[in-house]
Amino acid sequence: MLNRPSSIDNRKPVIAVVSPFLDKHHGTERCVAEQIERIADDYEFHLYSTTVHDVDLSKIIWHRVPALPGPLLLSYCWWVLANHLWRWWDRRFRGLAPELVYSPGINCFDADVISVHIVFAEFYDHMRRALGFRANPVGSWPRLLHRRIYYCLAIGLEHLVYGGKSALLTAVSAKVARDLMRYGKAPSQLPVIGHGVDARRFSPENRARLRERARRTLGLSEEDLCLLLVGNDWKTKGLPCVLEALGRLTAHPIRLLVVGRDIVDPYRFAMARLCLDDRVAFLPLRPDIEFYYAAADAYVGPSLEDAFALPPLEAMACGVPTIVSSQMGVREIITDGVDGFSLDDPHDSAKLAELIALLYGNETLRRRIGESAANTARQYTWDRNAQQLRLLFQEVLRRKRNPQIAQTTQIAENAVHEPAKRAESA
Predict the structure, then answer these.
(1) CB 102 within 8 A of CB 113
(2) Buried b / exposed e across 61-85, counting CB within 10 Å, b at 16+?
(3) Could you give the angle at the alpha carbon of 415 between the alpha carbons of 192 and 107, nearest 5°?
(4) Is the Cα torsion angle 180, 181, 184, 186 positive or negative in sign?
């Protein structure tokens, strides 16, 4: 399927965007969608993807690459092969020769710019023990084996693609830039383009407007302190630590909402042991995710490993006090005790319980931290993110057209390294 805008200026630089799917419900995909929508007037974007949802295609040409049903490992291998084949066909028979290829992660071997949202080698190091067969029930072993094989494939491709010199890598956080050192990249030379947030949807004003209805719908009383965790793969997101912390606070009316997709059964035993069955609710994602932020009094996300993590930033934008771990890229924009809290050890449930108890007993503190969090989050917009990428595209196109130009000019370096400098100063 070829979806053509009504009119496109053919003099614009032609850029191929390669992503397995694109929507605004997943972190990486949302980032790419927000970026290309905002700078579509400057470039002729050709999007190679299997599915597209919630994206304005009026100025973007979508080339639908058919998906192959089946396990992730098989569908991913097919995707890498298929997008190369589809783009070759367009070059060979349609005369479409993009000046630049942009990919979020490893989707192809010919990308000129790759935005790195996760370093699988680093992720696997942190999760190796949790992915061990002895640490999981026998019934989960086939799924576990599949994940381990997939991660091994991804790590091998990282060595091949990230370790090469053909593509310019940009990191979603300074943490990811440091993680890329294992592939011979100097963090100071990697542009950092952090996630953004939609300030119209995620704001203290919108939270206040939705709050009463959200809490009533979710069965929360005025006395309840509502904690929120959003995401999939709950073990990685730190749910075991949150449950243990909640088990230490049985004297307080504290409720936990876990929003996302994962298997609940592994957590039932811990909930029964800690007497949490009536204090924890597992809820599905919904398009108006701000509904959950409106109901929450605090966001808890002590991830074991996370390149950035968009939900904590959205919670901050809503004025919700947020607790994250030091292993998360979003930690770089948080000043501990000022606009959020940081947990040095994502396994430290005792410390997490102390922070939750502190918030529970001090409404003034919750309000102050929430107001500061909203002020911080306002600096990180999708417009800002897209502008940084636009500057990077300009630089790479100049370099491709004239190889004598230095790899990165000072203006582009200053623009895209600003988030990292903010983190260092904090």
Answers:
(1) yes
(2) bbbebeeeeeeebeebebbbebbbe
(3) 40
(4) positive
Quick count: other Cβ atoms within 10 Å of Cβ 30? Answer: 20
Residue 199: CB atoms within 10 Å: 16
Pairwise CA distance, residues 302 & 250, whole Å: 20
Q: How many CB atoms lie within 10 A of CB 420?
A: 23
Block residue for tokens 């959003």: 230
Per DSSP, the residues of 352-403 read HHHHHHHHHT-HHHHHHHHHHHHHHHTT-BHHHHHHHHHHHHHHHHHHHH-T
Query: What is the distance between the terminal CA atoms of the chain, rounded to a whole angstrom?
Result: 48
Q: What is the pLDDT of residues 180-220, one digit of tens each?
A: 999 999 999 999 999 999 989 999 999 999 999 999 999 99
Nearest in space to 18 (alpha carbons), one of 97, 125, 106: 106
DSSP string for 149-164: HHHHHHHHHHHHHTTS
Which contiguous run of DSSP H or E holds residue 64?
A: strand 60-64
**Among residues 384, 390, 386, which one has the least CA distance to residue 418?**
384
Q: Which domain holds residue 216?
A: 204-377
Alpha helices in 115-264, H assignment, sequence order:
120-127, 141-161, 174-179, 204-217, 239-247
Same domain for 223 and 114? no
What is the distance between the alpha carbons of residues 25 and 188, in angstroms, rounded to a whole number? 31
Give the three-state DSSP class for 92.
helix
Q: Residue for token digits 């809820």?
A: 283
pTM of the model: 0.86
Whether the pLDDT of residue 5 is over 80: the answer is no
The C-alpha atoms of residue 378 and residue 148 are separated, in whole angstroms, by: 38
Instruction: Render pLDDT for 113-123 as a digit per residue (tens, 0 to 9).
Output: 999 999 999 99
Q: Please indicate, yes or no, whether residues 185 and 329 belong to a single structural domain of this protein.
A: no
Shared domain for 209 and 355, answered yes or no, is yes
Q: How far apart are CA 257 and CA 229, in angstroms?
A: 6
Report d(CA 395, CA 335) in Å as an integer.
32
State whether 178 and 222 are in the same domain: no
Determine how many CB atoms are found less than 10 A away from the CB of residue 378: 14
Report whether 305 contacts 327 (CB < 8 A): yes
